[in-house]
Structures are given as C-alpha cells and as structure tokens.
C-alpha cells in the first residue's frame, strides 16, 4: 500500500495568524481539523511539518530535535513573511512545549498548549513512541509481520540517538517558563497520563502571564485535537483567541 505523506498547510483568511504545531511522531493531520475550524472563523493558519515526520521510521530516527525545532521556527517565519505581525501559536504535545519555547524566544500574541510535556521524562518512554510509530507505519504500509516485528526486536533496529537531547530541550524550556508574559491557555485531557496533567500545573504555576488559564477535558486522552471532545477543544481555542485584543492589521508583503 502506498502511503500519501502529510504536508505542511497554510490557509489565509483574516489578519489574525495562528501557528499550529503537531507532536513528536505526529504530523500536520493532528492539527488540520483545528486549522479548518479557525480558518472558517476568519483566522489565517499555518502548520509546518517537522523534518523527518510523517514518513517512514528510518527517516524519522535520522533527524534530531534541533531540526524539528527549526521546522517550527520556519513556520513562524513563514507567517512573518506573509506580513503577519501578531502571531498566536497552538501546539499539541511536543508542539505545546515548542509553543512555549517560541513564547520565550519570539514575539507571540498568545500561546495554547495541549498535553504539553514540561517535567523530566525518561528516554525509554520517548523511545517507546518510536516503536509505536514504527508498528503503525508498517501496518499502514502492509509490511507488518507479527512474528518479526515484535517491540523488543524493533527497538534494536529503530533507536533514536538524539532523545536525550530532546529531554534536555524540554527541561530547558521549562526552566525558562517564568520569562513568558504572553497570554497562555493550557489544555489537558484527564484520560491522559498523569505526567501531562502534572505538566499542565507546572506550566500554569511557572509562567508570569497576567492572562493564564487551565481547561481540563474529562473524556479526552493525549491528542486532544483528535479525541472524543475535539469539537469542544476547537471551540475552546477559538474563544481564547477571540478574547484577545488584536490589531487586525497586516503588513503589505514586499
């Protein structure tokens, strides 16, 4: 079976721009429906695809967190090139911590984090995500063999050497959370691992934003934008952005 790889997407509508960031081992399909929801309500949206993501696992493990972060920065810069001065950012999982990192390093109108990691996380738990990704990819491609593709065997073939660096990047971003003053809205699913619920509390208590809030979704797990309450999540993100004071101006593109 031929797998059609996901792509970055941009939908230009109004003068309010939102950068949408997917998670580790995820892709732009994680945020596509949210993007459509916002664009239908006159927001311009752009979602970059991190380098190595959305394709075969061999390609993924040959990339590293710096390259994924650069993909997020390039997405931000793409909106700036299009003339948008005020850029909000919303991210799922790793995209959530990247959203906070953007808030520390670039001017951001506001930040929405969804299931963002902010506490120390074991490298093995990250490695398990690679194995899950590999199994799902093989099943989609029709190459999965139940005998030879056992997790312990795949772990020997698909080890990502840069996962310790990823953990360091998460820790560094968390340490700088007090630098964030932009409005922050933190979303979490109560059916997610406790780690992410505790991370939400850490983010809320650490940022120095005058406008900050936490919203929990009772029947949702990790990828809030794809789970049972996704429509409620979309509305929550939209209402948060609507509550901000935007200039509604866009610079002409030279």
TrEMBL record:
The keyword Acetylation does not apply. Coiled coil: none annotated. InterPro entries: AB_hydrolase_fold, AB_hydrolase_sf, Esterase_lipase, Hydrolase_4. Pfam families: Hydrolase_4. Keywords: Hydrolase. Residues 16-229 form the Serine aminopeptidase S33 domain. One of its GO terms (molecular function) is hydrolase activity. This is Alpha/beta fold hydrolase. It comes from Ureibacillus galli.
